[in-house]
Specification:
Number of helices: 17
CATH architecture of the largest domain: Sandwich
Number of strands: 27
CATH topology of the largest domain: Jelly Rolls
Strand order of the largest sheet: 2-3-11-12-13-8-7-4
Keywords: Amino-acid biosynthesis, Arginine biosynthesis, Iron, Metal-binding, NADP, Oxidoreductase
Oligomer: single chain
Largest sheet: 8 strands, mixed
EC number: 1.2.1.38
Domain Semialdehyde dehydrogenase NAD-binding: 301-438
InterPro entries: AGPR, AGPR_AS, AGPR_dimerisation_dom, AGPR_type-1, DIOX_N, IPNS-like_FE2OG_OXY, IPNS-like_sf, NAD(P)-bd_dom_sf
CATH class of the largest domain: Mainly Beta
Pathway: Amino-acid biosynthesis; L-arginine biosynthesis; N(2)-acetyl-L-ornithine from L-glutamate: step 3/4
Distance between the termini: 70 Å
């Protein structure tokens, strides 16, 4: 290899040492239907804390990006003399180039540059050597459709670029078009990069230091090491650069001149830049799991274990509208061999694999698992799953940290204590940092979700006393599962309500565990659940004693502050009472606080859909976090009413 390409030892690429976590992934699709407030807040936070973010739901058609990528491959495959015909020159710096340098070291790549909006050529050559920005195109005989493919992609990307500038301006409390004037005319250009095979990828860089390091890696400022970043198919990486940092926004340790968009569908990268720079190592440092997902075009590949139960079916319903999760394996031992649509006809329109027995499931082409099997059956199954899988378990088997307490309440010893120690409790709004880095998440129960969301913040803030916490909760019949039970027959439950599990419901230790952790002191509760004659829904009514000097309004204001900005936890105003019909079919938890007529006491009511926020919706919310996706992805549907 020519010495001109060899980087100094301190700047050579190295293998990634860890997987980056917490990289902001922002879904822009809500902009099409709702005010931009929430997205503006996410963009502002990402720019301040990271200096870049990953955009999904951005509106640039995948087919348009694919055509541009294919056009780029076709151009770079041309013979050298045909590419040389559109080679860029000093007075005309657009077109093909293969000798770019960074800090006097050549970059291992070829490029092709165009402007999205071409100005007419000057009527005569400039006498003072002024640059002439005119696109150079190969002849249609060489590449039919090449010009149109790149122009369509560049136009779509430029439109997005200015939308993003508006979001960035709003996040800085500027008027939306405040930054447009700096980047109009010809400060925007599209670059197609090609990274040919490199004989010594340990010595060269596709683009050198002080330029963007690519969609697949992020530089750790503290150590200078490389870390893998999970790649979302069809996403764009948006880097915020020096011109608009203004001492407020962060940086990923490389100065840029504007900001950059880059598609995750690569020639190398197809990049639209507003006075920016793009870089990539010739070795694509991508985790095997993400690489496999990207290569197959399937996003995150999912297995659903126990798909014939209510929670499994609800997972399938939610994932029907999830842009990144694709179901590849579904198990149901008693329904093995059947089509899912024959088991649940309301989902017959979905293109899904046949159900198989768990023992016959092939996990080699899977990235993550939703385990919807009954408690007591999951421990050994999950213990036998490949270690590369991310797992959300919807049973109770990994919720209790104390395996002796588990044996006491569930009647048998835990058979996977090593996994019990690894599992992270998945009450999303209260444990998201731990969930984000977890391999195995224990999805909370429905009653514990509806109860802990209001009570944990109040206990932690010492606003209520830890004694005499009384909870009256009511659930729809689906909470009892799909298995045939005499007590759940229509004639047994119709036109009535009855208590069950009095003093012995298995969710009691889970609730007490969460409250005890928050209080840092042992908490016990009086909890009585009831079964209502309705299909889905859950209401929990909690009676608490106020701490000295605390009012019911203090509880309300603290919960309002705790959940401000949370998408799925909402407080009603005034004396409005939450109803199960307010949340049916959604991932919301709605609550309110009331002053009791007995002095020193307050009443808190919360409602959830037991199958969504109480089970499958929260499971998807958790796996979104675990896979580095927006937490709300696939969950932004409103409740069904009436």
């Amino acid at each position: 290899m020519d010495d001109a390409f060899v980087q100094a030892p301190e700047h050579r690429p190295v293998a990634p040492v860890a997987e980056a976590t917490g990289v902001p992934v922002i879904d822009l699709s809500p902009l099409a239907a709702t005010p931009p407030g929430a997205v503006v807040a996410q963009v502002g936070a990402a720019c301040r804390e990271w200096g870049f973010f990953v955009a999904v739901g951005h509106g640039v058609p995948e087919a348009t990006a694919a055509r541009a990528a294919e056009a780029g491959r076709a151009f770079f495959a041309l013979p050298a003399e045909r590419k040389a015909a559109v080679r860029r020159t000093e007075p005309a710096p657009l077109g093909y180039y293969d000798a770019e340098h960074t800090k006097n070291v050549r970059d291992w790549k070829d490029v092709f540059d165009i402007f999205p909006r071409e100005l007419p050529p000057p009527p005569a050559p400039s006498a003072d050597g002024e640059l002439v920005f005119v696109n150079k195109w190969p002849g249609d005989g060489d590449l039919p459709g090449f010009k149109l493919a790149l122009e369509e992609y560049a136009a779509a990307m430029e439109e997005l670029a200015f939308k993003l500038l508006e979001l960035i301006a709003r996040s800085l409390n500027l008027r939306p078009d405040r930054l447009h004037g700096f980047f109009r005319e010809q400060t925007t250009y599209l670059r197609v990069n090609r990274y040919p095979p490199c004989p010594r990828p340990d010595l060269a860089l596709g683009l050198g230091r002080r330029k963007d390091s690519g969609a697949l890696t992020v530089r750790r400022p503290s150590t200078g090491e490389w870390a893998r970043v999970r790649l979302v198919r069809g996403s764009l990486v948006v880097n915020v650069d020096d011109i608009i940092q203004n001492g407020i926004f962060g940086s990923n340790s490389k100065p840029f001149a504007g900001f950059m968009l880059k598609t995750a569908q690569q020639v190398g990268p197809l990049s639209l830049r507003v006075r920016g720079s793009v870089a990539s190592s010739p070795r694509k440092l991508l985790s095997p799991k993400a690489a496999a997902a990207t290569k197959s075009g399937d996003g995150v590949r999912i297995a659903v274990l126990g798909a014939s139960g209510y929670t499994g079916a609800e997972i399938v319903r939610i994932l029907a509208n999830h842009p990144q999760f694709q179901i590849k394996v579904m198990t149901a031992d008693r329904k093995a061999g059947e089509q899912f649509g024959s088991v649940f006809p309301h989902l017959i329109s979905q293109d899904l694999p046949r159900l198989v027995a768990v023992k016959d499931a092939d996990f080699s082409g899977v990235d993550a698992v939703f385990c919807c099997l009954p408690h007591g059956t999951t421990q050994e199954i999950i213990k036998g799953l490949p270690r590369h899988l991310k797992i959300v378990d919807l049973s109770a088997d990994f919720r209790l940290r104390d395996i002796n307490e588990y044996a006491e309440w569930y009647g048998y010893s835990h058979r996977a204590p090593e996994l019990q120690e690894e599992a992270v409790y998945g009450l999303t709004e209260l444990h998201r940092d731990d969930i984000r880095n977890a391999r195995l998440v224990a999805n909370p129960g429905c009653y514990p979700t509806s109860i802990q969301l209001p009570l944990v913040p109040l206990v932690k803030a010492k606003l209520i006393k830890l004694t005499n916490i009384i909870i009256d909760a009511k659930s729809g019949v689906s909470g009892a599962g799909r298995g045939a039970k005499e007590a759940n027959l229509y004639t047994e439950i119709a036109e009535g309500i009855h208590a069950y599990g009095i003093t012995s419901h298995r969710h009691v230790p889970e609730i007490e565990q969460g409250l005890t952790d928050a209080a840092e002191s042992k908490v016990t509760i009086s909890f009585t659940p009831h079964l209502m004659c309705m299909k889905r829904g859950m209401q929990s009514t909690m009676y608490v004693e106020l701490a000295s000097g605390v009012t019911a309004n203090d509880l309300y204001e603290h919960l309002k502050s705790t959940y401000e900005g949370e998408e799925f936890v909402k407080l009603l105003h005034g004396n409005n009472a939450p109803r199960t019909s307010h949340v049916a079919g959604s991932n919301y938890c709605i609550m309110n606080v009331y002053e009791d007529r007995i002095p020193g006491r307050a009443i808190i009511i919360s409602v959830i859909d037991n199958l969504v926020k109480g089970a499958s919706g929260q499971a998807v919310q958790n796996l979104n976090l675990m896979m580095g996706l927006p937490e709300n992805m696939g969950l932004q549907y409103q409740p069904l009413f009436p």
